Amino acid sequence: MEQEAVVKNNKFFNKIKKNSRVFLKDNLGILIALFALCTFLSINPSTSNSFLASKNIFNVLRQISTNLYLACGMTMVIILGGIDLSVGSIIALSGCISAGCVARYNLPLPVALLIGISIGLMIGMLNGTIVAKTTIPPFIVTLATMNIVKGLAYVYTGGSPVRVVTKEWQFLGAGYIGPIPTPVIILIAVLIVTAILMNKTKFGRHMYAVGGNQQAAQFSGINVAKVKFWVHAYSGLMAGLAGVVLASRMYSGQPTAGDGAEMDAIAAVVVGGTSMAGGYGKIGGTIIGALIIGVLNNGLNLMNVNSFWQYVVKGSVILLAVYIDYIRNKKKK
């Protein structure tokens, strides 16, 4: 019995070592970039004290959490060869309706949160249905729903924030469990679920097959429409979760919340090495990509860089990541 236990332990640790080597090999470039960025901000006289402060580190983790909720769904959509532009608007609508359920209709907090998240799921299912049942490109479908959902958020709120000031409401986005921010705890659970879906399920294998070659996947018996539907539904679900967490953090549902959030999510996914051509991507790379985007945003703010120039910097990072992806695909061909 002892020998069997030793053999099992050895197999377990060997598997961890193998997976760690593969992870480092696949993400060495972006890990070096993240390390270099953190080192620069740590030694820069204008940011060294503030960047390394525990309060700032927790603040960065809290901000990254919202982006990573979106990026988990966006990774799966981009692996399919699509894109989801509606997630930023879903953040606004789900947050406003969830806050309204508490402030206007006096519903219990769990019910309000569930309604907000369900709003995101339903919009994702709408996207998935249209993408799966038609040949309309996902870019056009989600561009349309982005505007529809954003308009609905303004119609519901009249353009004004829906304020909620109870401590119970604030706990989800601004609270702590021990020393760790609540959104980070939620993020850990989301990452585990996403990793299992992508790497350990038949659904994940089908997703990669459809992204790699849709026609071949269809000939092999995979229900392509079903895969597309559930991937977009999951993206909407993650956006709904991000919406209620962000509304909790801001003490209100705001129709302007989520503006540009889809760009940060796409940036995290692309910087993390997911191919825009579809068929390839790992959630581990997306995590590193989100850390790079989050630390970059934080560093630019600490250095008091003009917000206009921040758009230029982030756009340049996305362009560089896409160009690297282009070179990599060219070499494979």
What is the name of the CATH topology? ABC transporter involved in vitamin B12 uptake, BtuC
- Strand order within the widest beta sheet: 1-4
Distance between the termini: 51 Å
The structural domain count equals: 1
What structural category arises from helix and sheet content?
Answer: mainly alpha
Shape: globular
Strand content: under 5%
Q: How is the main sheet built?
A: 2 strands, antiparallel
Poorly predicted ranges (pLDDT <50, ≥5 residues)? none
CATH arch. level architecture: Orthogonal Bundle
GO molecular function: transmembrane transporter activity
Subcellular location: Cell membrane
Protein name: ABC transporter permease
Main location: membrane
Molecular structure report:
The chain has 333 residues and is mostly helical. The protein has helices spanning 2-43, 48-51, 54-79, 87-103, 109-133, 138-157, 167-174, 182-199, 202-212, 214-219, 224-249, 261-271, 283-302, 307-332; strands at residues 162-163, 176-177, 180-181, 252-253. The protein has 14 helices and four strands. The strands form two sheets. It has a two-stranded antiparallel sheet. A two-stranded antiparallel sheet has the order 2-3. Strand 2 and strand 3 (180-181) form a beta hairpin. Helix 8 (182-199) crosses helix 9 (202-212) and helix 12 crosses helix 13 (283-302). InterPro entries: ABC_transp_permease. It is found in: Cell membrane.
